[in-house]
């Protein structure tokens, strides 16, 4: 009698809509040296006590579990990740983890050149930098910090070093719509990808106005000036719709972050610095992994809780938001953007 050999089921986090969650956005701190208006108030921000943060050891354990279950890409974010002491050593350790094929970083770019060199040495090639204006005065008004020159120099240094650099610009009426075309011109001479984002309701103040410069308006504005712009093919899970002006070195993308047009192909999980696991940025935490670990849970118990959390992922950001409509929205620096 021949023995029937069944292939074991791949270990993956799959949600009720069949989406495979293979990308983790990991916040390592809620603290930041900037105060971008769309992310946090200028003063009176209550950062959490350091003891409430997942330690690097806890993070390494969790990343190993995520990697075993098919999470192959992690983006380190915050707050500003580089304000957490020991980050570069932590990155160096996790760059050795089996199963993690890509480590990317989102930063405000005020990081020092020494850190950039260390990232290059450990094989990190992809970095997203927030840059909302090419004008020094507007940069200051938006970030409330006089750091344009440092950030711009870092960006150029990273491009020169061969990093895949993406610039994130949150576009808002009365703030920086006049920067859109200069950003596109930046892609003429530099192999950089600029992404224009809609503002989301996570400024930590409880006030928010629906963006008037949404993805449709931003695209129309660009098309008016660049009728030859060409749409590029993007990865299925991409949140940005990407374009290029023929002959330009770089590209640009539009991210409907408030309009949420991309939820159908979402592959993301988010872990806050305090251990809150979110299966949607707009939703409530599904689980607190720090509390679970500190209660003495075994690896198997952690896996079980993760599978249960993923099984409750909502269909889209509107459904997730509706479920916790009464809860005040947190700052993006806490959620991990
Ligand atoms: N400090 C780093 C930075 O600024 O890149 C990493 C953390 S920040 C929270 C991550 C990303 O979230 C940034 O690109 C930032 O522009 C974006 N972001 C923050 N608040 C936002 C909001 N209310 N709406 C849209 N994007 C936001
Ligand atoms: Fe800091 Fe980034 Fe938030 Fe700006 S967007 S305040 S740089 S965490």
Q: How would you describe this structure to a colleague?
A:
By secondary structure, the protein is an alpha/beta fold. The protein has a domain at 23-173 and 261-335: TIM Barrel (Alpha-Beta Barrel). The chain has eleven helices and twelve strands. The chain has helices at 56-68, 87-94, 113-121, 136-143, 148-160, 180-189, 215-225, 289-294, 299-310, 317-323, 332-335; strands at 23-27, 73-77, 102-107, 126-130, 164-171, 193-198, 230-231, 240-244, 251-255, 268-271, 276-278, 287-288. It has a twelve-stranded mixed beta sheet with strand order 7-8-9-6-5-4-3-2-1-10-11-12. The radius of gyration is 20 Å and the shape is globular. It starts with 22 loop residues before the first strand and ends with a helix. The structure holds S-adenosylmethionine (SAM) and iron/sulfur cluster (SF4). Residues 32, 34-36, 39-40, 78-80, 108, 130, 332-333 line the site of iron/sulfur cluster.
Beta-strand residue fraction: 15-25%
The tally of helices reads: 11
List low-pLDDT spans: none
Q: What is the annotated CATH architecture of the domain at 23-173 and 261-335? A: Alpha-Beta Barrel
Predict the CATH topology of the domain at 23-173 and 261-335: TIM Barrel
Rg is 20 Å
Major β-sheet annotation = 12 strands, mixed
What overall form do the CA principal axes indicate?
Answer: globular
The strands making up the biggest β-sheet line up spatially as 7-8-9-6-5-4-3-2-1-10-11-12
CATH class of the domain at 23-173 and 261-335: Alpha Beta
Structural class: alpha/beta
Any idea what the CATH superfamily of the domain at 23-173 and 261-335 is called? Aldolase class I
Q: Number of DSSP strands?
A: 12
Give the % helix: 25-40%
Give the SSE string: EHEHEHEHHEHEHEEEEEEHHHH
Compounds present? Answer: S-adenosylmethionine, iron/sulfur cluster
Which whole number gives the mean pLDDT?
A: 94
